[in-house]
Structures are given as C-alpha cells and as structure tokens.
Amino acid sequence: MAINRPCGTYDISYDQDMAILRTRLQWILLIGSLILLLTLPLYSSNYLLYLVNNICITLIAVVGLNILMGYCGLVSIGQSAFMGIGAYTTGILAHHFGFPFWFTLPCSALMAGIIGVIFGLPSLRIKGFYLSMATLASQFIIMTLIMNADPELTGGASGLSVPAPKIGDYIFNTQPKMFYLIVPLTIIMIFFSKNIVRTGTGRAFIAIRDNDLAANVMGVNVFKYKLLAFFICNVFAGVAGCLWAYLMRSINPEQFTLLDSVWLMGMVFIGGQGSIVGSIFGTIFVRGLDELVKTITPFLPALIPQLKAENVIGFGPVIFAVVLIIFLIYEPRGLAHRWEVFKTSYRLNPFTY
C-alpha cells in the first residue's frame, strides 16, 4: 500500500488504511471543491447550472453502469431505457397521483432495479457479445411498451408533463433550486457507490469479472451477485431518470434512445472501467466535448465554405465516435489511468526513480 501514499506518509492503524480520504491535503481539496461547487449558483448563469445539473444526472447513470461493467464484468446496452423507467415512474406518480418527491424517488429506483433484474436473468447463462444482444433487446422492449401503453397513463409519443418537485412547502422550480437538489444527491450516490466496491459485495463483483468459474469455486454465489449487480446498476439509472423528469418537467420516449445508451457506455470506456473517479472524468469529458461541438458547429460553414449548414448537424456523434476509437486504441484504461499515473508521479517525489 506504500505506493498509494506520498513519500514519508505511513498508515499506523487499520482505519487509516481503509479510509477513502487519507491525508490532510485530500481533506483540504475535498472541502475546497465542495465549497466551490455549492456556491456555483451565486455567480453562474442558468444555462451553466442546467449543464451542471445535466452532467450530475448523467453521472449517476454512468456510475451505476460502471459498477455493472467495470466491476462485475457484465454488459448492458439499455441503461437509457432504465432511466426511462425511472422517469416515467416519477411522471406517472407525480402527474396522475400527486405524490411528492421523497416518495417518487425511491419508487423510481426500486421499479428500475426490479425490471433490471428481470432483464439481467440471461446473464446467468450467457456472457460477452450474447449478453450485450440480450440487454440491447431491453432498450427496444421497454421503450416500445412505454410508447404503446395507455396514452392516458404515459402520454404516448407526445409525452407526459411532470410537476416541479416539492419538499414540504419548498418548490424546486428554477435551475438554482434544482441544483441544490441534484448535486447533493449526486454526491450521496457517488459516496454510496465508492463504498459498495470496497465491501465484500464489491470484491465478489471483481472476482466474477476476473473469472466467474473461479469465483464460483471459491464460494461466491455467482447467481446472486450477477443479479445484484444488475439491480444496483438500474437503481442508479432509476434515480437518474427521476431527477431527469423533474429537471426537464416533461418526458417523452425520444429522450431515452439507443444512442443515449451508447453515449453512456462511451463515458464508461473513456473514463475508465472499474473506477468511480473514471466515471466522473468520462462524464465531464464527453458532456464537455459535446457542448464544445455544439458551440463551434454553427461557425464551421462560415470558416469552411465547402461545408453546408445541414452537413455539420451530425458532427457531434461523429466526433464522439472518433474520440471513443482513439481511447480504445491508445488509452484502453481510460482517463482514470492517466489520473493514477499523475498521482504516482507526485507521490513518489522526490524519489521518482
């Protein structure tokens, strides 16, 4: 464990060895980052706050997907559909029955988790490419059922309006107010995920990822933990879908497409599989890249006369695909690996040799 410490810093107790934050500098950086983050609405525009809220919701879904893919070694190409389950559960409960936020949030998480376990059952007999095809089916099945359900219940193709969330008499009806609802929940979910992977459950996931037959021989209940991984993954998706419904205040099937599921998987790959920090890096990087492309795309026809306005509309997915390919070839361990290399470089200072 010495490599995980700056030179001259040693653990003298088991609690210190197991702590997430191990040095005074880490505590200072964490507290400073939280202060900077939580005061962001005081000096930011509504659009920037919307972008941060969007990133945080996406991050929750990506962290859940990384627990399934990065830690347990399973595959899901339907994470966006499970966000849709969470969003529509929230929309139906809030729109039709007037249930408050504190009730719709756990219901959305539980509903997505239970349905995720059902679609995770094939993982007990198949893996790899075949499992990815099975989970791909969930994307089409779920969204088709939502679109063809009773329009009075789900709104059909036109969608469903969602009232602003309330806690007591306080209504979260602006971007700054939603910021103080979404960001704390995101921090809690990240902390929860970080602790999951440090428990016996997380070690069982890793054992299954490395070799499920060997894990079974060692006494790991592969049946139980594979389904548990799907459940946890989709609970995170349900929470993200609930927050998305309240943020957008209107939901429809076009918000939860296969392309969105691919983007979520790409964030896991770019950030780094098997790393919670990598999920954060991947989400911010991809969302930032997408925002950058949207900003510069309108100016490309003026800079390059050969390009027409209608030809640059699809640049976002193209650039995302190119970046994903570059990462898969040249940095398959993602941004999390670069972060570990950077941390090692200063931890070993001045003995870098």
Structure description:
The protein is mainly alpha-helical and 353 residues long. It has one domain (41-347): ABC transporter involved in vitamin B12 uptake, BtuC (Orthogonal Bundle). Helix content is 69%, strand content 2%. The protein contains 16 helices and 4 strands. The protein has helices spanning 14-18, 24-38, 46-71, 79-97, 101-120, 129-148, 151-154, 175-196, 200-210, 212-217, 222-248, 258-271, 276-296, 300-303, 315-330, 334-347, and strands at residues 160-161, 166-167, 170-171, 250-251. A two-stranded antiparallel sheet has the order 1-4. A two-stranded antiparallel ribbon has the order 2-3. β2 and β3 form a beta hairpin. α4 (79-97) packs parallel to α6 (129-148) and α12 crosses α13. The longest helix is centred in the middle third of the chain and has 27 residues, at 222-248. The radius of gyration is 21 Å and the shape is globular. The mean pLDDT is 87.
- What is the string of SSEs from the N terminus onward? HHHHHHHEEEHHHHEHHHHH
What is the CATH architecture descriptor? Orthogonal Bundle
Radius of gyration: 21 Å
Count of extended strands: 4
Helix count equals 16
Shape: globular
Please give the order of strands in the largest beta sheet.
Answer: 1-4
Tally of separate domains:
1
Biggest sheet statistics: 2 strands, antiparallel
Overall pLDDT, averaged? 87
Our measurement of the CA-to-CA distance between the termini, rounded to an integer number of angstroms, reads 18 Å
The helix content, as a percent range, equals 55-70%
